[in-house]
Please model this.
Amino acid sequence: MSVKISPSAGLAARVIVGAVLVYAGATKAAGPAEEFAIVIGSYDLLPRDMVLTAATFLPWVEILVGWSLILGLRLKVAAAAAGSLFAAFLFALLTVKAKGIELPNCGCFGDGVHLTLTQGLVFDSALAALCWLAWKSAPAPLSLDSWTEGGYTGRDHGKR
Amino acid sequence: MMDSAMDRMTRLAVSAALVLAAGAGSFLVARGGVKPYSPAAPGYRALGPADAKVTIVEFSDFECPACRVAEPPMRGILKLFDGKVRLVFKHFPLERMHHHARAAAIASECAGRQGRFWEFHHDLYDHQSEWPSEKFEERMAAYAKNAKLDEAAWKACRADPAVDAAVSADVKDGENAWVGSTPTFFINGKRFVGAMQLSERGTPWIEKELKK
Model:
């Protein structure tokens, strides 16, 4: 059975997830990558020579995926990318929990907001669920997708 | 009509540009303005020749365990590049976590004003497990004695608001340079955070800078 998502619920979901991603990405991108690299390194998931590269690019991925969601550009792809990010974050947090690693900071929002491990798990799970709502809401009105396709034409919008 | 004139690809390109512009805008808003940052410190907090080709500016907190861990690699670097690098120490006490850090920074600063900063510095890191406690004053007095300080002058100095202000000025410099954790090193301006980045990437970077 296909689940129907109202356009306003879809819009709310994508704006919430997008805003969180933009805020999280911008606070990290604005600070030094070397600081964020310390946090990524403490998860002990990536090879050490990849940590600084990840710390440099991950915040920009969050920012661009976030704005794509808010503005509705390639909405399905953006929602899937955001969902993948939150799935990866959840995996990282669960790994830390399993290994018993004490994180100084989850790295979710740079130096701004510090979440505990449990808070991070709940937060990322909720946002992953909203990503699913955003994904199901595509194609959506009030989106760049609808403008690109020449106007929103309902659920069959964009289908050829 | 303009809308009908724009084909799908053009609209897609405009949409992508809009997302990129919004991304760049949010970055610039989060970053804010560039604030002034001075890597300078009084001479007693510097080691090595003033005209060295490589200057390492260290923002550190005496009570921070990661700063103690970074001490051996830093001493190793100074030994390896003896006479070629200059180390400048800047105070960055993380007072929310380390309740004795500012007082230790002030005590070391006052040792510095008697020309004994590095002796005091070494004692604080080498005995870090001992002094951040109710024995703080007793331990500080012992390190002052080890450093052969004039005790009366050292005690008077610790009460001097100007010394506290000097520590605050370093903290301000660190904040302006986006120092978020300690230890943070700037080697000829390039940032390295923590002992691991210093050990793994700092030495090759110094070698590269010395070859210039």
In short: The two ends of chain B are 60 Å apart (CA to CA). Residues 43-211 of chain B form a domain with the Glutaredoxin fold (CATH 3.40.30.10). Chain B has two domains: 2-31, 43-211. The mean pLDDT of chain B is 92.
